[in-house]
Structure formats: C-alpha cells, structure tokens
C-alpha cells in the first residue's frame, strides 16, 4: 500500500477517473540510527557526518546512457561540507507528539480498548458521559490489564478483583474487598494520558512531563471542506513503523507488487518517476512527484513527523470541474516490530456506485494490498534489525524511483527512533531510560 493517486478505491470516488492516474501505494521504511547511545532523551538533529546516508536531491527522473556515470542513476550521499552547510541543530523528542490511536467511530461505547504506543500499553474507553478517557493499561492492585475489564456505571472496572476507577482523575473509587469504614489509598490511581478527538480520529499525547501542545495536533484542511467524502480503514501490521512509512512513500512498487489488484495498478505502467523536493524542515519534508509519461499530472506529497503521510492530487475532469483526491496515512508505532495504520481515501466527489458496496469490502480490498507486501516487508524488517550499518550503505536508491525513501531515511538519521525503554524499531541506538522519580507518579488529568 502506498500514498498514491491510484489507490484501491480511486475508481469509486470518480465516475470517470482520468486514465493517466496510476496506483501509488506507499511502502514502509526502517529506521537507521547511530550505534552510539545518546546521553539524554532529547534527540539532536545535528547530522552524524561520519555516517554514510542516502540523501535525496530535487531531481527529475534521469535515465542512464551507455557508459554514463552511475551518479546519474543513483542518489548520492552528501559530503561533510554539504552536510554542515545544510543541516542546523534542532532537538526532537518523540514523546512530545500526538499519536493516532483509533477511528473515533470505531471506539466501543460499552467496552475498553487495549492499544499500544512504542510498546506502552494503554486503555481507551468512553466514560458514562461518552467522554474519551485513556490510562495506562494496568491495575495498580495486581497489574492486571484493564482492557480485559468492563465499563460499570460509566467507570472502568478491573475484572480481576472489581476495582473501579473514575475516568477524569484516574482515581480508584470502589474496592469491593475494602471494609466500609476504610479509605481507599490515594496511591490506588491510574496514570492518565491526554486524548483528543479531531476530525474523526482519536489522538493521544504521550509525554508524561509536559502539557499537550495543541499546535502539534494534525489538522487536514481538505477534510474540513463541505461535502468532502472519505473511506477509512484500520490495519495492524507485523513490521516496524518505519518500514511501514517507507513502503507508503514508494510509488514505484505499486504497478509491480499490486498488478491488477484493482482497476488501476498495471505492471506495464512501471516507469521512471519525476520528483521535486520543495520543502525540508525539522518536522519532515514535502514535494511533488509524477510519472515521466505524463509529466503534467503531479501529485503533492507531505511527510509530517512523526505519523502523518499524505498524497494529494488536483485535476480538472472531462466536464471541466476541479476535482480533489487525497490519500491520508496515519501511522502509529505500536511497538518493536509492530505498527498500526489508519488509511483514509477522500475526494471532493465520488461515484454513487460506492454506496452499493458494504463497508467490509473496502477493508478487505485494502487488506489484500497489505498482504501482497507482507513477505517483502517482514524480511526487510528482519535484515535491518540484524544489520550493523545504516540503509545508505545497504540500499541502492534510484533518482527515478526512490527520492521519498531517501528523504525519509535522511530525516530518520537526524531523529532516530527512541523511547523510554528500548528502540521501537530496527534502530541501532542503545536504549535510554527515563529518570526514576521517588514514589508513584501523580495522576494526570486529560483536557
């Protein structure tokens, strides 16, 4: 699966989709980081000049001629002077970010939902007022998973001994085995996380030491447009979050890996691609890409760290009407070798035929696409975990197909995956631990 103008559902949004629009499933990428441990949890974006990395340039698709130097075909690594001139020092903390948890409409009304972010187990549910609550997924009594419990009178109940917890504060309000005159210990409290429902997606702020930064909460302008319609699916995948993002950024694999999977991907459409990187920031990159056989039709791709990848396409249809198509991928690093993906395909208009299909059809079709990539990505994940060198020394990135992959790896080299216990993906960085505080952490209130 990839961000593409040729998605498994493109044909359902447009009555007469342009024949030149091709599938663009994006493939995931694995992270590459230094083997040297960082002295503190906040990560520096200053590049490791001693490390060879694949760096994309603003280039169009170039074909090699007989005897031509390989640099016309392969993306090259920057020199020391180039890296020093082009890279500033920034700090990036993976915990001080919003992560997509689930589609709001899919959160059960009467049961808790167990999820993970960087192997941190959390439980999401709706309280008696229908307000979303999120806590660490373990009971302070005997560490049983609260997601195995139930909702009783609007409160989260541990199904092991019946302890019940109030949603807003996380404080235990009922212990069946406690004498009537006894007070519930103040330490019988859950660690809580801030959650936010935004544009149909539940997001969680994972930092325990800083208040939520709402300016970092992703907002998608096209989903706020009147009459904008979308189809959404959720997928759990058995490979690293960075592998997933790399896959989703790879339009070149779609015609080959997903040949005839739907009405758009065709093997004979494999061709050199055109790329133009227009923006690089500490929080990602953006640019345009298209196919060499139809250079007038250009997609806009944007990666916004750490979780958002979107591909937008605007064109004028046969009737002269401006059409807008969006493929949005929200990627959650669930844990070591595990990721979760929310896929949203949207458009300004869609064919009435879409109403004839049941919801499960779209999920099944998307699942088929991910299954086709499963073997490649799982083996890639395994090799990168075992490897002792960065992807710049392993990959042969082509100018005419792999610019986004190289750009993403460049960003990951500056911001290697890091969490409080261990690297959550095929990362070479050694684990760092958060400083321990005396006693139990105070309960955190969500807003």
UniProtKB/TrEMBL annotation:
Residues 98-204 form the Rieske domain. Residues 25-48 have a biased composition (Low complexity). GO terms for biological process: protein targeting to chloroplast. It comes from the Eukaryota. It is found in: Plastid, Chloroplast. SUPFAM superfamilies: Bet v1-like (SSF55961), ISP domain (SSF50022). Keywords: 2Fe-2S, Chloroplast, Iron, Iron-sulfur, Metal-binding, Plastid, Transit peptide. Residues 1-89, 422-447 are annotated as: Disordered. InterPro entries: Cholesterol_7-desaturase (IPR050584), PaO (IPR013626), Rieske_2Fe-2S (IPR017941), Rieske_2Fe-2S_sf (IPR036922). Its main location: plastid. One of its GO terms (molecular function) is 2 iron, 2 sulfur cluster binding. Residues 438-447 have a biased composition (Basic and acidic residues). One of its GO terms (cellular component) is chloroplast. Gene3D superfamilies: Naphthalene 1,2-dioxygenase Alpha Subunit, Chain A, domain 1 (3.90.380.10), Rieske [2Fe-2S] iron-sulphur domain (2.102.10.10). This is Rieske domain-containing protein.
